[in-house]
Amino acid sequence: MIEFWFDFSSAYAFFAAAEIDDLAARTGRGLLWRPYMLGTAFKATGARGLSATPLKGDYARRDWARLARLKGLEFRLPPGHPKVALAATRAFYWIEDQAPDLAPAFARLVFRRYYTEGLDTSDLAAVAPLGAGLGLDPGALAAGAALPAIKERAKAISEEAVARGIFGSPFFIADGEPFWGHDRLPMVEDWLRRGGW
User: Fold this and answer.
1) Containing domain of residue 143, as a range?
2) Cα atoms found within 13 Å of the Cα of residue 79, Cβ hemisphere only
3) I need a surface site. Which of 51, 118, 153, 156 has the fewest CB within 10 A?
């Protein structure tokens, strides 16, 4: 099993999301998509996001553009990046409750729209219409994502991540082994193929 932990506002997670399905298929593993709020981890570690860190932020923007060219992906940082993607995260978990097979497709759509069209992932009114493309009623999605139980679930999952030692995005648990960062995907694949080392 591969667990794919990420924050929608993590650009490196966007690149990982473009590759993770194929990696899971090549290695014959199930894949669990797990959005969480990276801010919860930052509170525990004292870290802050790349975009807000001097020098690192400038390098990261250059690296993201370079990765997009390398992978042939359309990529534009939205205005006001990074957004606090709480609305998108809550919407994901409501969809997972209602139609589990659609949740990964929703996550892919959120990533694509955020990094190409500037989707406001912090605004449920902006996020809910994405459900229509998956055959979900946007009104039901908006109402569902605002339910207290879904809010609590998203919070609990973020706290679970930190309790399990997950502190970045993207972060992978591959057959029980933790890996941090998009650049670890080749190592994840090798670990799964060889059964560890």
Assistant:
1) 2-194
2) 0
3) 156
Of the candidates 9, 10, 158, 169, the residue annotated as catalytic is 10
Question: What would the two tokens of residue 18 be?
Answer: 């473009």
What is the number of structural domains in the chain? 1
Active-site residue, 10 included: yes
pLDDT in tens, 135-191: 999 999 999 999 999 999 999 999 999 999 999 999 999 999 999 999 999 999 999
Burial of 37 (0-12, 13-18, 19+ CB in 10 A): buried
Q: Helix-strand-coil percent breakdown of the chain, rounded to 5?
A: 60, 10, 30
Where residue 109 falls among pLDDT bands split at 50, 70, 90? very high
